[in-house]
Design a protein that fits this description.
The chain is mainly α and about 190 residues long. The chain is built from five helices and two strands, in the order E-E-H-H-H-H-H.
Length: about 190
């Protein structure tokens, strides 16, 4: 099997259902950002410290779920041959919320913004958080033009919160303190 199709030579790509779109299309941009995030999570897993390797399985699960999100973003609403993978039945937003609550209970309380960084793992998790937020903005831009699977947007929204909580927890695991933003007023109550 050849991995090149030559469709991209003219700036186009074929999505699920055989629709051909420009690579600059909002749908392609949205699922491309999710793909970028998935790759970043792969790098993050490869770079986990001995103490943060406890996050490996759930990060791998997140990669699986990101593939599902990307697949669903590549399915046009008028495609009657393909069904969405990501559904409420999966309840992965609840799973992320449980992880967020678990990690928040294990880190020092903060009322102020913190600088993204700390240990290498924490810094990478913060980076994943910001890439997630960019993907979310691109998904929202797509939603303004055409409908998508709403569960994808909910999952991506919660995923950025997960990465924040996991970054703080990674700092605790690695014995590194978060650094508060010096000009932050209390924002978390």
């Amino acid at each position: 099997m050849k991995i090149y199709t030559r469709t991209g030579d003219k700036g186009k790509t074929r999505i699920i259902g055989n629709n051909v779109l420009y690579k600059s299309d909002k749908r392609v941009t949205a699922y491309g950002s999710v793909d970028e995030l998935n790759s970043l999570v792969g790098v993050l897993i490869a770079d986990l410290s001995d103490k943060t390797k406890v996050l490996a399985d759930e990060l791998t699960e997140i990669q699986q779920l990101l593939f599902d999100c990307g697949t669903d973003l590549a399915i046009a609403q008028d495609d009657t041959k393909h069904e969405f993978i990501f559904t409420e039945d999966y309840k992965y937003v609840d799973w992320l919320e449980k992880k967020i609550d678990e990690y928040t209970a294990k880190v020092p309380k903060t009322q102020k913004f913190i600088l993204p960084g700390g240990s290498k793992t924490a810094a990478s998790l913060h980076y994943a958080r910001t890439v997630t937020r960019r993907a979310e903005r691109q998904i929202v831009s797509l939603v303004q033009d055409e409908p998508i699977n709403d569960y994808v947007l909910k999952f991506i929204n919660r995923l950025s919160d997960y990465f924040f909580a996991a970054a703080r927890y990674a700092n605790v695991l690695d014995g590194v303190e978060d650094i508060q933003y010096r000009n932050s007023k209390p924002v978390f109550r």
